[in-house]
Amino acid sequence: KQWYQRRVRANNLRMGNTFRSALKLAGLCALIVICLQIHISLHKPWYQFKLMRLQMMTILQTFLTYGSYYLYRTYKISPGWKKFIIVSIMLTHFSFFAQYMFVSDNPSFLTLIPFLASACHIYLFIGTLCGDIGTFLFIPFTMKISVPYQKFKMNFVPICAIILTIYSYINTILPPQHSTVHVPIQGMGNQFEKLHIMHLSDIHVGPTTGKVFVDWLVDEVNKHEPDMVFITGDLVDSSVKNLRNAVRNIKNLKSKYGTFYVTGNHEYYTNDVDNWLNYLRDHLGVVTLHNQHHVITNGNASICVAGIDDPQAEKMSYPDHAPQPVQAVDGCPDNSPVIMLAHQPKAAKLAIKSLSRVDLVLSGHTHGGQFFPIHVPVWLTNPYFAGLYSVSRDTHVFVSRGLRFYGAPMRFLSYPEYTSVYLHVKPE
């Protein structure tokens, strides 16, 4: 009991030390951000991107270092887990560089293994933090718990982290679910009754998703024989030079009216968005909606398919790519239903607020939270989280959970999906 009391006091002292260390790191991080922001404002756009990437890497590595230090201090007294924690920390820090250094047609184990380690790192940090907070809050009760409890805790959390990592990774390699949504459209011509739209979002071709998945996806979409295919952003995570061959098969998507695409925030992170728009349009036959629209006709009936750029564009020094809903629908036929493609739910809300008529907005971006407990901040920071929303009597928003993931290969309490959206004529 005395040993355990000393251990509790040591834990409390350690938590105080780590808190003070966190404040110092946060101050250092803030100083770095300010200095880099001054540099960013003084240089050309191409240099701004490099500095912003360095800025983001510095911020992430700073906070990751704090988390790594916290885990090491916690588990260094456990001979069985000390080496595992050290290897996991090293691989996790390396993953930030691997996503830029090892990008090819298909994922390499040089990126997959570090990202798997980062997934385990996240679960381990969350579990350990929750355990320490619980111990800190309930000291009067834990004081009576014997030493074997501490040993149980030191083994239970890492084992749970490994199991959750494996489970989350399996969810990412299983085929995405095919979901179906039915949306009534006011004033749509009978010719378009049961129009079939295949909605794809957040494919994230790059370090952990490659040509094999794209080829599989194209075959799956073609089996459903859609009338239109919509890709609502975050298609790629690297440049055209690196991923040209990986996405080439998109040109084989088959539909009656074609494949339509809008940018997501990750296209701007590549610093190659204009080349992507040109490549998709000129080489793969994709209709790129750069604050533009395309009119679909069938007899005397028409539907206006519009798309807006991602709000992240302005922050990434692409002022001519800011979302412009009014410009996007300028020239649409009067009384024609408007279907808007907007990657982020925030952009969907902007489109609905800016326009007098929007019948359906298709978005992605949220990944349905991707993994717990990220669901909570994602839900809090987006006006629409996942699924179909009836914003008003005649306006609907559908947010896809996405096909893949970004960063760590994790899907927990959020399944990947591609969606068949069927449009129906709404009775008067």
Task: Characterise the protein shown here.
With 428 residues, the chain is of the alpha/beta class. Helices cover 49% and strands 15% of the residues. The protein is built from 14 helices and 12 strands. The strands form 2 sheets. It has a 6-stranded mixed sheet with strand order 1-12-2-3-4-5, with helices on one face. A 6-stranded mixed sheet has the order 6-7-8-9-11-10. Helix 8 (240-243) links the parallel strand 3 and strand 4 (259-262). The longest helix has 39 residues, at 2-40. The chain starts with a helix and ends with a strand.
What order do the helices and strands come in, and which of them pair?
Blueprint: H1 2-40, H2 45-75, H3 79-101, H4 109-137, H5 139-142, H6 147-173, E1 177-185, E2 195-200, H7 211-223, E3 228-232, H8 240-243, E4 259-262, H9 265-269, H10 273-282, E5 287-288, E6 292-298, E7 301-307, H11 312-315, H12 325-329, E8 338-341, H13 345-354, E9 360-363, H14 375-381, E10 387-390, E11 396-399, E12 417-425
Parallel strand pairs: 1-12, 2-3, 3-4, 4-5, 7-8, 8-9, 9-11
Antiparallel strand pairs: 2-12, 6-7, 10-11
What are the key terms here?
15% strand, six-stranded mixed beta sheet, 428 residues, 14 helices, alpha/beta
